[in-house]
């Protein structure tokens, strides 16, 4: 031992070498222990993180081509309507129509007494004949130089006045029978047999119901998608479906509502549909891919936007709603791709970007969702908590 100590005193670098070796082993052992501790902690955190994932149930839905529509509420109106008025004065001597009767263009409605007009016309024709003779005599004398130009011009004027009077009375006599200006229905009749009419008195109201017009108001955001001649359909209060085309789009909006008036003309040859009926109007636009969901799977994001929560690579993705169409079985949403995994249960416990544990509904091909089936919420929530 003393010999070893003596040797170390003579050669001190051995001491340094030993100390270096000991320090190396100490540092290496510390790093190995730290690595083992980090790995254990990472495994522990991963296990804890996996144990804390929220379980959700999703259903895989497949998009279908759906035609986007604009749905409006309107009412039916006549194609045209007019209030017919008397153009001559006289006594109503005959009534041909009743209220509600269908008439053809040119068909007589009433007759007004014409004896006075006939007598005046006879007198006017006699005067006309006299004026012609007077003009012929004035022209003959004028050719011989016995008649002045003033008298000749006066004779010509008298003749023209007589012609005008005969023409006026002929016209009045023809107006004594009031006729329908177009095919239509006598909606109202304001006169009876024996009534004394003055010029301008109301006689009847005539309406044309073929085509029948559906009027509705469209918002300023939708009016740009409409064009004249575009196809449209309407569901009447009787649930009958009618089809037609857009014939008019207002160029100026209503100042109170900022909506634009739209008219759709539908064929109504048998006047089956009447004016003044409430109608649901539907105008088809372009066709797009959409999936049908039930309103129960809709949710709000942190900003309060309404949408649907889906699963992409085990992470929640929030998609704002784009309603293409709605019906009694659900809502068709666009912008969700051809195949989408929609969270049907548990969407209230997760947020956009969260990693989740996903289970899929049995046979979840989208058909069950399209049928509008909704599981029991209380039972499903309990199942999720159990998972």
Please give the structural blueprint:
Layout lengths: L1 H9 L2 H39 L2 E9 L1 E14 L2 E6 L4 E6 L6 E2 L4 E5 L2 H30 L4 H27 L1 E3 L4 E6 L6 E2 L4 E7 L3 E8 L11 E6 L4 E9 L9 E8 L11 E16 L4 E3 L5 E7 L2 E6 L2 E5 L2 E5 L4 E7 L10 E5 L6 H4 L6 H10 L1
Parallel strand pairs: 1-22
Antiparallel strand pairs: 1-21, 2-11, 2-15, 3-10, 4-6, 4-9, 5-8, 6-7, 8-10, 11-14, 12-13, 12-15, 13-14, 15-20, 16-17, 17-18, 19-20
Helix pairs in contact: 3-4
Family: Belongs to the membrane fusion protein (MFP) (TC 8.A.1) family.
Protein name: Efflux RND transporter periplasmic adaptor subunit
Pfam family, one: BSH_CzcB
3D structure, described in words:
It comes from Paraglaciecola mesophila. The chain has 387 residues and is an alpha+beta fold. It folds into 4 domains: 50 residues; 112 residues, conserved putative lor/sdh protein from methanococcus maripaludis s2 fold (Beta Barrel); 88 residues, Elongation Factor Tu (Ef-tu), domain 3 (Beta Barrel), CATH 2.40.30; 119 residues, Beta Barrel (OB fold (Dihydrolipoamide Acetyltransferase, E2P)), CATH 2.40.50.100. It has 6 helices and 22 strands. A hairpin with a 2-residue loop joins strand 17 and strand 18. Helix 3 runs antiparallel to helix 4. The longest helix has 39 residues.
């Amino acid at each position: 031992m003393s010999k070893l100590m003596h040797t170390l005193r003579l050669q001190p670098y051995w001491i340094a070498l030993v100390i270096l070796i000991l320090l190396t082993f100490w540092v290496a052992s510390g790093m190995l222990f730290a690595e083992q501790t980090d790995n254990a902690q990472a495994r522990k955190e991963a296990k804890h993180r996996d144990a804390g994932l929220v379980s959700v149930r999703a259903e895989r839905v497949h998009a279908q081509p759906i035609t986007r529509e604009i749905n409006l509420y309107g009412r039916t109106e006549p194609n045209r309507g007019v209030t017919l008025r008397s153009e001559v004065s006289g006594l109503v001597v005959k009534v041909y129509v009743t209220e509600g009767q269908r008439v053809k263009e040119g068909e007589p409605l009433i007759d007004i007494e014409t004896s006075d007009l006939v007598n005046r016309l006879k007198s006017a024709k006699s005067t006309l004949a006299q004026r012609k003779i007077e003009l012929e005599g004035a022209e003959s004398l004028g050719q011989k130089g016995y008649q002045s130009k003033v008298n000749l011009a006066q004779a010509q004027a008298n003749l023209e006045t007589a012609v005008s009077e005969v023409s006026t009375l002929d016209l009045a006599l023809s107006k004594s029978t009031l006729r329908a200006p177009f095919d239509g229905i006598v909606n109202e009749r304001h006169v009876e047999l024996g009534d004394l009419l003055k010029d301008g008195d109301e006689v009847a109201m005539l309406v044309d119901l073929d085509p029948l017009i559906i009027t509705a108001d469209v918002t300023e955001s939708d009016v740009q998608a409409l064009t004249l001649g575009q196809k449209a359909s309407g569901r009447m209060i009787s649930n009958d479906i009618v089809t037609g085309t857009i014939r008019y789009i207002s160029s100026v909006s209503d100042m109170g509502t900022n909506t634009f008036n739209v008219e759709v003309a539908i064929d109504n040859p048998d006047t089956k549909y009447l004016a003044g009926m409430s109608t649901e109007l539907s105008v088809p636009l372009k066709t797009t891919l959409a999936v049908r969901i039930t309103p129960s799977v809709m949710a709000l994001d942190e900003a309060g936007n309404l949408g649907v929560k889906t699963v992409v690579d085990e992470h929640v993705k929030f998609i704002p709603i784009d309603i293409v169409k709605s019906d009694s079985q659900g809502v068709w949403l666009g912008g969700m791709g051809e195949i989408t995994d929609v969270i049907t249960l548990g969407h209230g416990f997760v947020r956009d970007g969260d990693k989740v544990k996903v289970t899929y509904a049995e046979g979840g091909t989208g058909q069950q969702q399209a049928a509008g089936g909704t599981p029991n919420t209380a039972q499903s929530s309990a199942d999720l908590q159990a998972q």
